[in-house]
Amino acid sequence: MSISEMVVPYGDPRPPFHRKSAFDVGDYGLGYCANSLLLGCDCLGAIKYFDATFNDHNGQPTCIKNAVCLHEEDAGLLWKHTEYRTGKVSVTRSRALIISFVVTVVNYEYAVYWTFYQDGTINFQIKATGELSTNIFADGEEQAGYGTIVAEGIIGQFHQHMFAVRLDTMIDGLRNTVSTVDVEPLEGEFGSKDNPYGQGFRVREGRLANSAESRTSVSPATSRIWKISNDSEINPITKRPTAWKLIPMNSAPLMAKQGSLIRARAGFAEHSVWVTKQNDEHLFAAGFYVNQSRGGDGLPSWISTEDNIIDEDVVLWHTFGVTHIPRVEDFPVMPVETCGFTLKPNCFFTANPALDVPPSSKEVNKSKLVNCH
Ligand SMILES: [Cu+2]
Question: I want to staple 52 with a disulfide (CB 3.0 to 4.6 A). Which of 13, 67, 163, 325 is the partner?
Answer without folding.
Answer: 67
